[in-house]
Amino acid sequence: MPRAAILGTGHSVPERVVTNDELAQLMQTSDEWIRSRTGIQERRWVEPGTSGIDLARQASVRALDAAGVDADELDAIIYATISPEHYLPGNGVYLQHALTTRPVPALDIRAQCAGFIYALSVADAYIRAGLYRTVLVVGQEIQSAWLDATTEGRDTAVIFADGAGAVVLRATEESRGILAIDVHTDGAHADKLMIEAPGARYRPKESAAHLAARRFFPVMAGREVFRHAVARMPESVRETLAKSGLSVADLTLLIPHQANLRISQAVQKELGLRDDQVYNNIMTYGNTTSATIPIALDECVRAGRVCSGDLVVFTAFGSGFMWGSAVVRW
Ligand code: ACO
User: Fold this and answer.
1) Ligand 1 proximity of 218 Cβ (cutoff 6 Å)
2) Could you tell me where the DSSP H helices lie in 244-281?
3) What pLDDT score does 1 carry?
């Protein structure tokens, strides 16, 4: 059975840097609160009107260039996002059109902060099954569009941010590539982090009443999410490594989803990893949800932090609750 190897990575973030001090002018918060509770120093938000597809296209072109793969060689596109341009069709459709004239399948995945791992699991299954040989996986978000940048929404507004990351996967008969992926859901916690409207559950699906009731903004039971994240992520890392016949002692680099620096530090401590074995960039990008892991991975690859033979593990936890991990031999 072939494996899926990551041939190239790329990312793209908006130019506009939003500092904690800037947010403190919009809501009751402070640089000190945000840094000490989340680790975030600044994040990127797009200028209004910027398309998420443009970010995704830039990230994808960089990943394709790094891989030495032409866009017309792609057999499928898997696109993780919770901030699509439109209610329908999905973002994958627009990215397919922006990259290639071939009518390749383009599938959107909605799995929040675990979106990239879920997308990777689909691409990996396609490749292992022999259905497709070369697959582009993208994570992209423009979350600044739906944040409540007032004191009422400060718990989420200071965390979430915009960006895109991409990887090009190709079937290989070599021993490198994705060794195992593990994804889970526990829908009992669906209300702990959600955006309730618009939705087909309502008539009309969007209304001024919903806006007035603030149902278009995210609501998050932050402490509950935190508590589950620090338990599920290490558990999932161990399970996924065990599926590959490996353990934490074999791990070279952990790239955890960047939801809160304190979550990453708790996961590191629970797994007994050194500082140089865990990559964090939440300080400069905030939480870019589906885009977080491919952005971080691309930074690591370009900085030479990932070398041939290294064992790299991704892990993520988020709304749903949905979570998972992937183990990759570089
Ligand atoms: N500035 C100042 N004060 C704030 C802010 C802010 N930005 N946000 C909340 N507070 C206040 C609260 O109102 C509260 O005040 P009170 O005590 O007077 O009621 C106080 O700070 C403490 O609030 P908590 O929510 O208990 O603060 P906590 O230390 O838990 O930090 C945080 C909040 C950062 C949101 C944290 O809970 C967290 O990171 N949770 C996990 C987030 C996460 O992992 N999300 C999943 C991924 S996202 C996805 O899937 C899309």
Assistant:
1) no
2) 261-271
3) 87
Q: What per-residue confidence (pLDDT) applies to 298?
A: 98
Tokens describing residue 167:
């990887």
Q: Are 236 and 323 in contact (CB under 8 A)?
A: yes
**Which residue's structure tokens are 């209610």?**
87
Task: Give the residues of the chain that fall short of pLDDT 50.
Answer: none
Instruction: State the Cα–Cα distance between residues 94 and 73, nearest whole angstrom.
Output: 18
Q: Do the strands 253-256 and 219-220 form a parallel or antiparallel pair, or are they unpaired?
A: unpaired
Known active-site residue 300: no
Report the topology of domain 178-329.
Peroxisomal Thiolase; Chain A, domain 1 (3.40.47)
Per-residue pLDDT of 215-225, as tens digits, reads 899 999 999 99
pTM for this structure?
A: 0.96
Amino acid at 42: E
Choose among 42, 115, 80: nearest CA to 322.
Answer: 115
pLDDT of residue 214: 84
Q: What pLDDT score does 211 carry?
A: 82
Which of 37, 189, 288 to probe ligand 1 with, by most ligand atoms within 8 A of CB?
37
How is the chain split into domains, by residue range? 3-175, 178-329
Nearest CA to ligand 1 atom 21: 155
What pLDDT, on a 0 to 100 scale, did the predictor assign at position 321? 98
Residue environment code for 261-290, b if the CB has 16+ CB neighbours within 10 A, otherwise e: bbbbbbbbebbebeeeebbbbbebbbbbbb
Q: Is the CB of 106 under 6 A from ligand 1?
A: no
Q: Is the preceding omega at residue 218 within 30 degrees of 0, hence cis?
A: no
Cα–Cα distance measured from residue 327 to residue 125, given in angstroms and rounded to the nearest whole number? 14
What's the token pair of residue 255? Answer: 């790239």
CATH superfamily of 3-175: Thiolase/Chalcone synthase (3.40.47.10)
| Residue 230 CB neighbour total at 10 angstroms | 20
Amino acid identity of residue 160, one-letter, is F
